[in-house]
Amino acid sequence: MNEQKNSPLSRRAVIKGSLATGAFWATQGLLSSDVAAAGQPVVEKIKNATILFQGDSITDAGRNRRNKGPNNAGAFGRGYPFLLASYLLAKYPKEQLKIFNRGISGNKVPDLDKRWQADCIDIKPDVLSILIGVNDIWHKLNGRYKGTVESYEEGFNALLSRTKEALPKTKLVICEPFVLRCGAINDKWFPEFTQRKEAAKRVAQKAGAIWVPFQEAFDEGVKSAPPKYWAGDGVHPSMAGHALMAKTWIEAVKV
Amino acid sequence: MNEQKNSPLSRRAVIKGSLATGAFWATQGLLSSDVAAAGQPVVEKIKNATILFQGDSITDAGRNRRNKGPNNAGAFGRGYPFLLASYLLAKYPKEQLKIFNRGISGNKVPDLDKRWQADCIDIKPDVLSILIGVNDIWHKLNGRYKGTVESYEEGFNALLSRTKEALPKTKLVICEPFVLRCGAINDKWFPEFTQRKEAAKRVAQKAGAIWVPFQEAFDEGVKSAPPKYWAGDGVHPSMAGHALMAKTWIEAVKV
User: Fold this and answer.
1) CATH code (residue A160)
2) CA–CA separation, B132 vs B107, rounded Å?
C-alpha cells in the first residue's frame, strides 16, 4: 500500500486516524469529546491496516481459538479486544481493517515467544498490542514457574527485538500488567508485581512503543467501586473492567 | 427506592442519567460530544436500576443461557447488549446497576409471550428493551409459521399491555426490526417487512415507548460499506453492525 497516503504505521497516523469524523464517532465509541471536536477526516491513513491483540487470558477472554479469521465476533471473546474491534470496525467501514485476537489463557512471555512466528509475525500486523506479565508472577507464586523479574524483562525485550526485525514498520502498543486488590491477589504479589510493571514500562520505552497505563486506570476506578467490581479474582476483568481497559487503550493510542 | 431521587423510570431520568459525568464518559462510550459537554452529574437517578434486553438471536448473540446472573459477560453474548452493558457498568460504577440479556434465538412475539413471566416480569426491569419481529416474517417465508402483520401487531400490543399492567413504572424501549439487502434477504421480504416495521412503530407509539431506529442506522451505514459488512446474512449483525446498534440505542434512549 502507499506508505505516504495509506500507511498506518506511524503513531501520528494512528492518532490522526482516530480523529476521523470524530464528532460523529464520539457518539459511537471511545473518543474524548475535545478530540472529536478537533478531529479532521484523514481515515485513509489507516486504510487496509491489520491490528493484532496479543496476550494471556485477559486478552483471550473466552474467544473461539478455532476461528482464525479477522473481524469475527466468535474469534474475539468477551473482553477489551472485542470492544475495541467492534468500535474500530464501525468507525472505519471504508478502511477494510483486519483485526485479530490471538491472546491465549495462561500465557507468559516464553509462551508468546514459542508461538510468535505463526501468531504474530505471519499475521504482519500494522498495529500490535501486547498485554503480558500477570501469569509470569502468578505461576511463579503457585510454584509452576521460576521466571524472575529480570528474565521477564529480558524475554520481553527479546520478543520485541525479534518483532521489530521481522516487522520494522509495525506500531507497537505495550499494555501495563495490572492487578486489583481482591480475589487471588494478596501481599505475596508485592513488591515483585510492582517491579514487573516497571520492567514492562522499560521494555515499552526501549522499543519506542505506546504505553497503555491499565493499572493507573484501575487504581482510579477503585475510587468509585470496590476492586471486585472491576475484576472478581483481581486478575480477570468484569465487563466494566474490560470497558475501562478499552477506554484507556484508545486514550493511550490517541495521545 | 426513593421515587423522587432514585427512580430510573421516567424517560427524563434515563436521559439525565446518561449525562452523568458526560465529558469524561464521552471518552468511554456512546454519548455524543454535545450531550457530554452539556451533562450534569445526576447519576443517582438510575441508582439500583435493573435493565433488561429482550428479543431473538440478534439480542441473544450466542449468550450462555445457563448463566442467569446480571452483569456477567458469559450471559451477554457478543452483541449490542454486551457493548451497552459494558459501557453502562463502566460509566456508573457507583449505581449498582443490574443488567440482563434474555434474548433467545429464533423467537417471535408468541415465543416471548410464552416465557414473559419468568424472563421479564419476574426480573422487574426498570428499563426494558425489546427487539422482535424478523423471525415473525422469516419463519413465515420458510413455511414454518403463519402469523400475519396484523397478528404481529396484535400480539406485540398485548405483550406490552401485559407488561405495563404488571410493571407500570417500567420504561419501555422498542427497537425497530431491520434487515440488510444481502444473504437471506430477497424481494419476497417486501413489502411485508416494511409493513411489519411500521406495525412495530405503532406498537411503540401506543405504549409510549422510546423508539430505536435500527433500520435507519443501517440504511445510513450501507452508504459507507456493503450490506454484508454490517450483517453477513442480512439479519445477524457483524461486530460493526452490533456497535452501530449500540450507538443508535444510546442516542435514542438519550434523545
Assistant:
1) 3.40.50.1110
2) 8
